[in-house]
Design brief:
By secondary structure, the protein is an alpha+beta fold. It contains twelve helices and 28 strands. It has helices at about 120-135, 155-160, 190-195, 240-250, 500-505, 540-545, 555-565, 575-590, 620-635, 640-650, 660-670, 680-685, and strands at about 5-10, 25-30, 45, 60, 65, 95, 175, 225-235, 255-260, 275, 285-295, 315, 330-335, 340-350, 355, 365-370, 370-380, 385-390, 400-410, 420-430, 435-445, 450-460, 470-475, 480, 490-495, 500, 520-525, 525-530. Strands 6, 8, 9, 10, 11, 12, 13 and 14 form an eight-stranded mixed beta sheet that branches. A six-stranded antiparallel beta sheet has the order 20-19-22-17-25-26. It has a four-stranded antiparallel beta sheet with strand order 1-16-23-27.
Length: about 675
């Protein structure tokens, strides 16, 4: 008998600032997040029930009955957030990131205007603070008019809510749907998923909020000046965890958080100090940044109508401009009952020529209890795999054991373990959020080689529940999500060790004939790699610069990006060159010179016409080009890598057409006849 999976689906509720899947409740709260003086009416979003909690008596595609565990699952899994896994210590009675021995580790107060982007301002503020606290490099050319680092809230939000359907991007098809996109709301969990996908650490000067109505270029989706290593998120403060937030602030900078906001609780005549008792974490509707604390902040500073029982408060940076409260800051009582979803984002500098192997592009996820889960990837180039990333569900306990395994697959591999185990790393991950795990043994792979990353999660310490592994899902609710999964990408393993392709799982029915897993997508599991070369490829940037200098009537982005491209140092790294090219292409697109996706993969390692990457142009390449063209016309995204995509685009128009396939066929015919053909002749013919 086969033991299968328990499954739970939850929303990353984008109209609330709270974390998806609040522990202990079977609903979410949602509210538009605007800095209005009025209180907000709250709407309830129920658990998404597609597939239920347990699907008994499922049958596979051959009609074979699969036996499921008989135990049912609680509506939610209790977390162990009370205990601090780190060693506690004495903290100062007061602390402020605004002045740490004369240094400030917080960027200026921003104004979200009439948008619901408080969640993005809080998340970006936490990222900026972490970058400053670590002392990461902030070149002068990156700084804003204020002379400081300013990351783009618009970039973080826009792309996670915008559909992408692009050959070569295996995370295409993953996005959230909400009126107004991210200005309708969001949360720290969504921010962590976007940052993990390589979205969001863009500079404000290249994606300013003022351009929101016009939109942002797909050339810049993955333009990133820093990268997120991991995100730690806890739902609310329990016994002992207040000291944990203090530790986070002192170690890694400001912490984003959410709470219920109502104007009547701020102004107390002589102070701006917030505390109320009518609303709990269920009602959280606004996100802010915690930048310090004062254990002795007097309870008398709070309104006599709503006063905490003890002294002590958090120092908070808001996103309503400097005219608000204490030039954009206010105090919040330690006892505020609605304070929740406290998150830190640990950032690092971009380094080298890094490849991000991923299928999940940052949408809402479901959780599934399975023995193991895996993704199979094909190496884009010769590279070294060094880091694995995966999210931990808020439904899990605060500590989860993990084992990450890398398999070098056989040519005819039938499962993620059908090959040689070349690296295995085990440990314990803490808190929900996206995690980065450095491989104990980095793995070198060759271009075109298939490899698998396998993730197994185990319960630890006091937890009596198996952890949930996160997978993508298609859902329709207040916030809808969309994801694409294709054959041979993601797999889950049942209790007997049998592996199932996610597309196979989608076709399985329960005893009522329902397709219980039809809404599930790829496993949320990424691999980072370095190609290990010091050589850089400027083909894409050179092609963009060939359009020449902008004239006086050119757009601001074209001018700014062109100047930045010319100012690149001679020893610029590949990611700096790529960023410059992407920003410049976006400026050229805005001014009507190019159309996305022209030149998108110009700098990729490829041989023109060699789609299957076997080192020669054959009839199989022509056939693959024709298949890709046919799928594209049918709305199906083929699994070509970036290098394969540009190899297939013979005429360089950014599309794979029947003309491209014919050109490859004609080229092959000429080579077979002993001729030395020229690609330009094949295209012209």
């Amino acid at each position: 008998m086969k033991h299968f999976w328990r499954i739970r689906t939850w929303l990353c509720c984008a109209t609330a600032v709270m974390m998806s899947g609040w522990l202990g409740q079977s609903f979410f709260t949602a509210a538009a997040v605007y800095p209005s003086a009025a209180d907000f009416s709250l709407a309830q979003i129920t658990w998404e029930q597609n597939g239920a909690l347990l699907v008994p008596d499922a049958v596979d595609e051959n009609g074979e009955t699969i036996s499921f565990p008989e135990t049912t699952m609680d509506p939610a899994v209790a977390a162990i957030y009370g205990a601090d896994p780190f060693q506690t210590e004495d903290y100062p009675e007061s602390y402020s990131l605004l002045d740490v021995d004369g240094e400030c580790f917080v960027t200026s107060v921003k104004d979200q205007g009439e948008s619901g982007l408080c969640w993005a301002y809080a998340a970006m503020g936490a990222c900026e603070s972490d970058i400053l606290k670590q002392g990461l490099s902030v070149p002068e050319s990156w700084k804003s008019d204020r002379g400081e680092l300013d990351l783009s809230e618009a970039s973080l939000s826009w792309y996670i809510y915008t559909k992408r359907f692009q050959l070569g991007d295996l995370a295409s098809g993953d996005y959230l749907i909400l009126d107004g996109k991210g200005v309708g709301g969001g949360n720290a969990t969504i921010a962590s998923f976007a940052l993990a996908a390589g979205i969001g650490a863009q500079l404000e000067s290249y994606a300013p909020m003022s351009d929101w109505d016009e939109g942002y270029s797909e050339y810049q989706r993955y333009t990133s000046y820093y990268q997120m290593d991991s995100a730690d998120i806890i739902w609310k403060l329990e016994s002992g965890s207040k000291d944990l937030i203090k530790q986070w602030i002192m170690e890694t900078g400001a912490v984003s958080a959410s709470y219920y906001s109502a104007s009547s609780y701020y102004n107390n005549g002589t102070s701006s100090a917030y505390y109320q008792t009518r609303h709990t974490t269920n009602d959280a509707d606004h996100a802010i940044l915690i930048v310090g604390w004062d254990d002795n902040y007097a309870r008398e500073n709070f309104s006599a109508k709503s006063r905490p029982s003890r002294d002590g408060a958090w120092l908070v940076r808001n996103s309503w401009g400097t005219d608000d409260a204490y030039e954009g800051y206010f105090w919040m009582s330690y006892d505020e009952p609605s304070l929740c979803e406290l998150a830190r984002f640990q950032m690092s500098e971009n380094h080298g020529d890094q490849i991000r192997y991923q299928y999940d592009g940052g949408v809402s996820y479901s959780g599934i209890v399975t023995k193991a889960a895996a993704n199979i990837f094909t190496a884009e180039s010769d590279c070294t795999l060094h880091t694995v990333m995966f999210p931990l569900s808020s439904l899990n306990a605060s500590e989860v054991g993990y084992t990450v395994s890398i398999y070098r697959l056989n040519d005819d591999a039938q499962s993620p373990e059908d090959g040689t185990l070349v690296s295995e790393t085990s440990g314990t991950a803490v808190y929900s959020g996206y995690k980065s795990i450095a491989l104990e043994t980095p793995v070198q792979v060759e271009k075109g080689e298939k490899f698998a990353v396998v993730l197994s999660l185990e319960r630890v310490q006091l937890s009596d529940r198996q952890p949930y592994t996160t997978v993508e899902s298609n859902m329709d609710d207040t916030v809808s999500s969309r994801c694409l999964v294709r054959d041979g990408q993601s797999f889950v393993c049942d209790g007997t060790g049998t592996w199932y392709d996610m597309t196979e799982l989608q076709q399985m029915t329960d005893s009522s004939g329902n397709y219980a897993y039809s809404h599930l997508g790829n496993v949320a599991l990424k691999v980072l790699a370095d190609n290990g070369t010091t050589q850089t490829n400027t083909a894409q940037l050179d092609a963009a610069l060939a359009y020449g200098a902008p004239n006086e009537s050119a757009g601001t982005l074209y001018k700014t990006a062109y100047d930045a491209a010319l100012s690149l140092p001679a020893d610029a790294q590949q990611w700096e060159i790529d960023n410059a090219a992407e920003n410049l292409l976006a400026g050229l697109e805005h001014d009507g010179f190019v159309t996305f996706p022209q030149m998108l993969y110009q700098a990729e390692d490829y041989m023109l016409g060699d789609i299957d990457m076997d080192g020669s142009v054959t009839i199989q390449d022509a056939f693959q080009g024709l298949i890709t063209y046919t799928k594209w016309n049918a709305g199906i995204l083929d699994t070509l890598l970036p290098g394969q995509t540009v190899a297939a685009d013979i005429d360089g128009d950014g599309k794979i057409s029947i003309q491209d396939a014919f050109a490859i066929l004609l080229y092959y015919a000429n080579v077979s006849a002993g001729n030395d053909p020229d690609w330009s002749e094949m295209i012209r013919t």
